[in-house]
Specification:
By secondary structure, this protein is of the alpha/beta class. The protein has a single domain, classed as Ureohydrolase domain (Arginase, Chain A), CATH 3.40.800. Helices cover 28% and strands 17% of the residues. It has helices at 57-64, 98-114, 129-140, 168-174, 196-204, 220-230, 262-270, 294-308; strands spanning 37-42, 85-90, 118-123, 143-148, 178-188, 207-210, 234-240, 276-283. The protein has an 8-stranded parallel β-sheet, with helices on both faces. Helix 1 (57-64) links the parallel strand 1 and strand 2.
């Protein structure tokens, strides 16, 4: 019997300003049971060091996603014809305790992965990627990583704390979650405290692609190199919205000028097609600094693009 795949609620069936408040107005369910992929929110900002507000990111991303349609006109991907997808809601974080929240997230993703679903996460501050990678590594071993960000997020500590939104990739590497020779950090830029802000990554074996190397050029050739380098290894994609220039995405907590463009963002995510993508996240959308909703719309669009490059879609 042919499986009937969930479909986003269409704009001709219900006005886009109405209907369910889920990602792309997809059906909601409580767990990842029976799903090939799922959208899940992690509404937190207690790991953020500057502007707050990313706890509201998942809700706003869902709201703006009502504009998205099921077929990708540029790539030809039709994910809802091949994958069973739903929105499984939010992880119930402890908004008063960051360390407990990290444990809650890890256990939530253990459960998602036990169902065999690929999680696509709406953040939330970037701390959340650390426990997700811990859960993913239990299933897949050390992961390759495509990390798009203005910041390397490899701090030893922040205000004396080992866990915060500036430390996830250092902690993940220390815990054996990452294959250092297959980590790409794209879009890094801005001011720092010392060269080690980026050079630590390089010494571990990460490939660092500063934003300045991306200016005025297509990133399609870079992504061809990424595909050749990563091969069929399990890959996690972590996309911090502050990788984009604030002209495109002002609604975030730690803005830096001179960032990537939206078309370069599309080239990066679409360039992951053919990789063994086992999960991804879009983090650091802060609605209080996003009065137009455009930052959240970009976030929703990039999450849809991640869905379109999952194995089984192409």
């Amino acid at each position: 019997m042919q499986t009937r795949f969930n479909q986003p609620l269409g704009g001709n069936d219900m006005p886009r300003f109405a209907g369910p408040a889920t990602m792309m107005r997809l059906p909601a369910q409580d767990t990842a049971a029976g799903l090939d992929a799922c959208f899940v929110g992690v509404p937190m900002d207690i790991g953020a060091s500057n502007r707050s507000g990313t706890r509201h990111g998942p809700r706003q991303i869902r709201a703006e996603s009502c504009m998205l349609r099921p077929y990708n006109m540029a790539t030809g991907a039709a994910p809802f014809e091949r994958l069973q997808v739903a929105d499984i809601g939010d992880v119930p974080v402890n908004t008063f305790d960051l360390k407990k929240t990290v444990g809650i997230i890890e256990r939530a993703y253990d459960a998602i992965l036990a169902h065999g679903a690929v999680p696509l996460t709406m953040g939330g501050d970037h701390t959340l990627t650390y426990p997700i990678l811990k859960a993913m590594a239990k299933v897949h071993g050390p992961l390759a990583l495509v990390h798009v960000d203005a910041h390397a997020d490899i701090n030893e500590a922040m205000f004396g704390e080992a866990i915060a939104h500036g430390t996830p990739f250092r902690r993940a590497l220390e815990d054996g979650c990452l294959d250092a020779e297959r980590v790409y950090q794209i879009g890094l830029r801005g001011t720092g405290y010392a060269p080690d802000d980026f050079d630590w990554s390089r010494r571990q074996g990460f490939t660092v692609v500063p934003a300045e190397e991306c200016w005025h050029r297509s990133l399609a050739p870079l992504m061809q190199t990424v595909r050749e380098r990563l091969g069929d290894r399990p890959v996690y994609v972590s996309f911090d919205i502050d990788s984009l220039d604030p002209a495109f995405a002002p609604g975030t907590g730690t803005v830096e000028i001179g960032g990537l463009t939206t078309w370069q963002a599309l080239e990066i995510v679409r360039g992951c097609r053919g990789l063994n993508v086992v999960g991804g996240d879009l983090v650091e959308v802060s609605p209080p600094y996003d009065p137009s909703g455009n930052t959240a719309l970009i976030g929703a669009s990039l999450l849809y693009e991640m869905l379109c490059v999952l194995p089984g879609v192409a």
